[in-house]
Design a protein that fits this description.
With about 400 residues, the protein is of the alpha+beta class. It has helices spanning about 1-15, 60-85, 90-95, 110-120, 125-130, 175-180, 230-235, 245-255, 260-270, 330-340, 345-355, and strands at about 40, 45-50, 135-145, 150-160, 165, 170, 180-190, 190-200, 210, 215-220, 275-280, 285-290, 295-300, 310-315, 365-370, 375-380. Helices cover about 30% and strands about 25% of the residues. It catalyses: an N-acylsphing-4-enine + H2O = sphing-4-enine + a fatty acid.
Length: about 400
C-alpha cells in the first residue's frame, strides 16, 4: 500500500491539474445506449472451441489481433528499457521466463505456448503479459438487484496504473495499447456455450465472465503487503500450492455448476495473490464480495435486500475500511447508485453510474454489463476525454 501511495503522489506531481476534475461530478444520465466521446466502440465477439487442443484454441483471435499484440509487447519492452537501460531485464524475460511455462497448470501453459507461436511474440514476453494482469488491475465492480429480483452485474476494467504516462495525449500508454486487444469470447463445448467472457487477446485467464443463467463473476485487485509479487516469487522458487487468481476464475467459470459451488471455490482455494471476487447468482439475494488474502476469506459482504443493501460494490479497498483519499471511486459510485434507487436500477442506469468520473477515468479500458437471467454479456471500449482523473 505504501508503494501505491508513493507512486500515485509521484504521478500526481507531474500530471497537470487541469486534467484533474473534482471528485463530485454530477451523476451521469442518458449515457446508454453508448455513444459520444466516452464510447470507442463495442467489443467484438469470437468463439473458442474447448474441444480443440489448447495450443490451437486462440489461433483465430490472435491472427486478427497479432499487430495489436506485437505493439503491446513493444510498449512493455520500452517501459522495461526505461527502468533498466542496459536491456538486461528484457534478456531475463526472454531467457528465464520460458523455463517457467511448464510449471503452470494445464491447459493454460499450452494455450500460452500456442498464443506465442501464433503471434510471433517471444514465449517469455507472452508469459509476462499473462503475469502482469495479475498485479496491475484497478477496477470497479458491482452487482445490483432490481425490484423484480433480477441481478445486474457490471464492471469498469481499469488497467495500466504506473505503466507509462503519455504527457502529450494525457493517457496511459499501456491502457491505450490494450484497447485494440479487447475481445468478447464465447467458450463452447459440443457447440454449446459453457461461459462467456471479456478478455484481452493473448491473456488466458479470466477477469470478467458469465455462465449464462447460473452466475456472473468479476475479479478486482486487492493491494496487500503479502501481495502477488510474493506469490509469483514463491512459485518461481518452487512453492506451488497456490492458484493463480485469473486461472481460478476461469476454472470456476468453466466448471462450477452453481452459485454456491462458485462461492466455495473462490472463498477456500489458496491463491498466489490477494484479490476481490465479486460474484452474482441467479436468484434474489445471491450476490457477494469475497475479500481474499492468499489463504483466507475475510469479512464477506452479502447482498441483503430486506436490510436495504440491494447492491454490493467493490473498487480496490476493503469494504470495511475507507478507500485511499487519492483514489476514492467508491464514494461517487455509491452516491450515484443511491441516487438512482433500486426502483430505477437497470442496465441503462448502471452504465450511467460507471460513466461518471472518477468511476470512469483515464485507466478505464472497458465497461461490461451482464444479466444472468438473460445470459447476456455486453462490453464497450471506453475513453475519458480530459478533464478526467488519471485513475
Amino acid at each position: 500500500m505504501f508503494l501505491r501511495v508513493l507512486c500515485i503522489l509521484c504521478i500526481f506531481s507531474f500530471v497537470s491539474l487541469q486534467y484533474v476534475p473534482p471528485y463530485t461530478e454530477d451523476c451521469r444520465t442518458g449515457m446508454y445506449p453508448p455513444s459520444g466521446p466516452t464510447f470507442k466502440g463495442a467489443v467484438p465477439w469470437y468463439t473458442i472451441n474447448l474441444e480443440l487442443p489448447p495450443n490451437k484454441r486462440w489461433t483465430q483471435i490472435i491472427a486478427d489481433k497479432k499487430d495489436a499484440m506485437i505493439s503491446l509487447a513493444q510498449a512493455v519492452r520500452d517501459l522495461a528499457d526505461a527502468f533498466v537501460p542496459s536491456g538486461r531485464l528484457e534478456e531475463l524475460v526472454d531467457k528465464a521466463l520460458p523455463l517457467m511455462i511448464d510449471t503452470l497448470p494445464y491447459p493454460f501453459n499450452e494455450e500460452i505456448k500456442g498464443i506465442a507461436t501464433a503471434s510471433g511474440v517471444p514465449l517469455g514476453e507472452t508469459l509476462l503479459l499473462n503475469i502482469f494482469y495479475e498485479v496491475f488491475t484497478v477496477c470497479t465492480s458491482l452487482v445490483a438487484e432490481d425490484p423484480h429480483g433480477n441481478l445486474i452485474h457490471a464492471r469498469n476494467m481499469d488497467f495500466g496504473l504506473f505503466m507509462g504516462w503519455d504527457m502529450k495525449n494525457h493517457s496511459w500508454v499501456i491502457t491505450e495499447k490494450l484497447k485494440p486487444l479487447l475481445v468478447n469470447v464465447d467458450f463452447r463445448r459440443n457447440n454449446n456455450t459453457v461461459f462467456k467472457s471479456t478478455n484481452f487477446a493473448g491473456y488466458v485467464g479470466m477477469l470478467t465472465g458469465i455462465q449464462p443463467h447460473v452466475f456472473t463473476l468479476t475479479m478486482n485487485e486487492r493491494f496487500s503487503l503479502d501481495g502477488g509479487y510474493i506469490g509469483i516469487l514463491e512459485w518461481i522458487l518452487g512453492k506451488r500450492d497456490g492458484m493463480w487468481m485469473s486461472f481460478l476464475t476461469r476454472s470456476v467459470l468453466e466448471n462450477a455448476t452453481s452459485y454456491a459451488e462458485a462461492k466455495k471455490l473462490l472463498s477456500d482455494t489458496k491463491l498466489l495473490a490477494p484479490a476481490y471476487f465479486i460474484l452474482g447468482g441467479n436468484r434474489s439475494g445471491e450476490a457477494c464480495i469475497i475479500t481474499r488474502s492468499r489463504t483466507h476469506n475475510l469479512n464477506p459482504l452479502e447482498l441483503a435486500v430486506k436490510q436495504g443493501r440491494w447492491y454490493v460494490l467493490e473498487t480496490n479497498y476493503d469494504h470495511w475500511k475507507e478507500p485511499l483519499f487519492l483514489d476514492n471511486r467508491r464514494t461517487p459510485a455509491m452516491k450515484c447508485m443511491n441516487q438512482t434507487t433500486q426502483a430505477n436500477i437497470s442496465i441503462k442506469t448502471v452504465y450511467d453510474v460507471l460513466s461518471t468520473k472518477p468511476v470512469l477515468n483515464k485507466l478505464t479500458a472497458y465497461t461490461t454489463l451482464m444479466e444472468v437471467s438473460k445470459g447476456t454479456l455486453e462490453s464497450y471500449i471506453r475513453d475519458c476525454p480530459s478533464p478526467c482523473m488519471p485513475w
